[in-house]
């Protein structure tokens, strides 16, 4: 089941972010903004601005930001659907859920296999390993987030997958591009960051160039049957897993990674 985008827009239109944040954080109006102590990092001074006109919050210290849905996700440790349901309930709105297409296991398995390929390529690439070291990313961190590397090749991944997966699965995976009736790898010569949903399933990838002259610097998978950029928060699955392992509730201390952007 999924929530129509039009309904999500309706919820945001009818929600006042000052009320949402103000129920959880003491706010004081100063100028065009409401100010409060940011709940996502240790602080005692008001560093978070909430703008009623723009329906947006921003912390000038830890850079936590977003709309009412984003705030609830971080503050209450909710996934996207739960946050929308919470806001809709406060407005007295019933969510018009839509039936979603049942996902073929192959839709996930091709991405799982790609993760393995990228991980193996990283172990073989001294250039990529040195790049990660230069960014202070340890081997432990790389393993935890299953970081990988994509060959500087036009179709090495496609060639290794075309006899293993159906064309419809290949086409819908977001891993490949088609041009002039030929198929190419979307990610080439990049450090790869698998993007997981809240259940820990691989649903997409982000790629970062290691050669400074290459463009674009960052590249994400396109939106697919499994991946909706606005619904996902990179690192949330790992953060929740770490929270459970350490045995404490981190909902007010900044459980967030990077929002998926293009």
Explain what this protein looks like in three dimensions.
The chain is globular. The chain has two domains: 5-91, DNA Primase, Chain A (Alpha-Beta Complex), CATH 3.90.580; 105-259, DNA primase, catalytic core, N-terminal domain (DNA primase DNAg catalytic core, N-terminal domain). Mean pLDDT is 88; it is low at 248-262. The strands form four sheets. The chain has a five-stranded antiparallel sheet. Helix content is 36%, strand content 20%. By secondary structure, it is of the alpha+beta class. It contains ten helices and 13 strands.
What features would you highlight for this structure?
DNA Primase, Chain A; 5-stranded antiparallel beta sheet; alpha+beta; 36% helix; 262 residues; 2 domains
| CATH homologous superfamily placement of the largest domain | DNA primase, catalytic core, N-terminal domain
Strand order of the largest sheet: 1-2-3-4-5
Beta-strand portion reads 15-25%
Inertia-based shape: globular
Percent of residues in helices: 25-40%
Domain tally: 2
Report the C-alpha radius of gyration, rounded: 20 Å
Tell me the CATH architecture of the largest domain. Answer: Alpha-Beta Complex
Q: What is the top-level CATH class of the largest domain?
A: Alpha Beta
Number of helices: 10
Please state the structural category. Answer: alpha+beta
Q: What do we call the CATH topology of the largest domain?
A: DNA primase DNAg catalytic core, N-terminal domain
Given as residue ranges, the uncertain stretches (5+ residues, pLDDT < 50) are 248-262
Mean pLDDT, as a whole number?
88
Main sheet, how many strands, which sense, barrel?
5 strands, antiparallel
The ordered H/E elements are: HHEEEEEHHHHHEHHEEEEEEHE
């Amino acid at each position: 089941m999924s929530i129509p985008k039009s309904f999500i827009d309706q919820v945001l239109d009818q929600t006042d972010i000052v009320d949402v944040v103000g129920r959880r954080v003491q706010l004081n109006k100063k100028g065009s903004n409401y100010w409060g102590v940011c709940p996502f990092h240790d602080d005692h001074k008001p560093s978070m601005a909430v703008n009623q006109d723009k329906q947006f919050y921003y912390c000038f210290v830890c850079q936590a930001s977003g709309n009412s849905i984003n705030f609830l996700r971080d503050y209450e440790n909710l996934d996207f659907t739960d946050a929308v349901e919470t806001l809709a309930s406060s407005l007295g709105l019933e969510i018009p859920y839509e039936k979603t297409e049942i996902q073929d296991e192959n839709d996930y398995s091709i991405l799982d296999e790609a993760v393995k390929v990228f991980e193996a390529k990283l172990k073989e690439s001294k250039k990529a390993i040195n790049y990660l070291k230069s960014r202070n990313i340890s081997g432990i961190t790389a393993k935890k987030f299953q970081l990988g590397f994509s060959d500087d090749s036009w179709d090495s991944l496609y060639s290794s997958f075309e006899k293993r997966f159906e064309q419809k699965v290949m086409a819908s995976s977001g891993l490949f591009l088609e041009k002039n009736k030929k198929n190419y790898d979307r990610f080439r010569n990049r450090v790869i960051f698998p993007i997981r949903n809240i259940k820990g399933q691989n649903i997409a990838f982000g790629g970062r160039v290691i050669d400074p002259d290459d463009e674009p610097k960052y590249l994400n998978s396109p939106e697919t049957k499994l991946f909706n950029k606005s619904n996902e928060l990179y690192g949330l699955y790992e953060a929740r897993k770490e929270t459970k392992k350490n045995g404490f509730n981190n909902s007010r201390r900044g459980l967030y990674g990077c929002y998926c952007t293009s």
